[in-house]
Task: inverse folding
């Protein structure tokens, strides 16, 4: 999406196919060779209004390794905690020559609203996780991880299991993986399923239906922070019914791998021995965070 010259990555749903594949190829190449100083002279601001470890650290490392200046705004100590809007914060930082904004925020639609409010003066925005809508760089990471592992993904069966309703990762990853030709399904407790149909995925009929024949089993965290008090399921009961154990993993296809965007809760959605086991790709996903975000930062800078 471009707006008067600035390029943004707000979601994968509206990213054209050529750019999608270009980003995956570039991330793969950046992972293989020492990164070039392609962002010298640019300044990237990380505005994280929600907690983050992997996403924030990898955006910072990606920008630094490409030679950009990085500003990590300490949100609780910034003027946003005095009631300033995102748009006014962005305008103030733009006045100090910040040109790329990496934003994580709980409100769906806030990035599109900011782009439209800033009009011709909009800087480049990258969505680092917005509400329940999209987490496009995580979708790219998951697509690249699966592509590198399996090569041609046409017809590859992928199950995304857990708290689908609150997951922006499920949305972006289903879009990304289905674009590679994979057959994606989602499953979770009825109370954690989305009300609306899901782009890029079929709704499976429970855990067994989802996992049987799957080559990739992607587990998701129960996102308590998005639920009303008392609305989250009990950990032990959740694990008994929806946790990925070795016994359950045995029902997937032979050679199946396990994924999770993190942070994961041991003994809740995933058993410790599965998370640490030989089929786990969890740390491969984390490692790809840096080259994927390098590719995205270059792409929004049109480099
Ligand atoms: C996810 C997120 O924030 O959407 N984590 C991530 O970025 N790797 C998933 C989560 O918080 O459960």
Result:
């Amino acid at each position: 999406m471009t707006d008067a010259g600035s390029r943004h990555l707000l979601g994968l749903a509206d990213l054209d196919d050529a750019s999608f594949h270009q980003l995956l190829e570039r991330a793969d190449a950046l992972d293989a060779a020492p990164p070039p100083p392609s962002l010298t002279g640019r300044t990237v601001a990380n505005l994280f209004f929600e907690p983050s470890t992997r996403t924030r650290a990898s955006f910072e490392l990606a920008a630094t390794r490409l030679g950009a200046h990085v500003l990590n705004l300490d949100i609780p100590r910034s003027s946003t905690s005095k009631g300033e809007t995102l748009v006014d914060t962005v305008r103030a930082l733009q006045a100090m020559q910040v040109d790329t904004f990496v934003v994580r925020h709980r409100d769906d639609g806030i990035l599109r609203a900011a782009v439209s409010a800033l009009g011709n003066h909009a800087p480049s925005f990258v969505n680092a996780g917005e509400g329940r809508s999209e987490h496009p760089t995580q979708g790219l990471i998951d697509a690249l991880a699966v592509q590198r592992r399996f090569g041609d993904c046409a017809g590859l069966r992928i199950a995304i299991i857990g708290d689908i309703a609150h997951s922006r990762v499920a949305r972006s990853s289903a879009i990304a993986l289905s674009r590679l030709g994979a057959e994606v399904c989602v499953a979770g407790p009825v109370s954690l399923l989305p009300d609306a149909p899901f782009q890029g995925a079929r709704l499976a009929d429970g855990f067994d239906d989802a996992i049987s024949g799957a080559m990739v089993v992607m587990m998701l965290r129960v996102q308590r922070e998005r639920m009303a008090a008392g609305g989250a399921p009990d950990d032990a009961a959740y694990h008994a019914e929806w946790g990925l154990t070795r016994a359950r993993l045995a029902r997937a296809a032979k050679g199946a791998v396990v994924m999770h965007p993190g942070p994961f809760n041991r003994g809740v959605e995933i058993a410790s021995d599965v998370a640490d086991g030989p089929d786990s790709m969890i740390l491969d996903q984390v490692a790809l965070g840096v080259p994927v975000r390098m590719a995205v930062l270059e792409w929004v800078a049109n480099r």
In short: The mean pLDDT is 95.
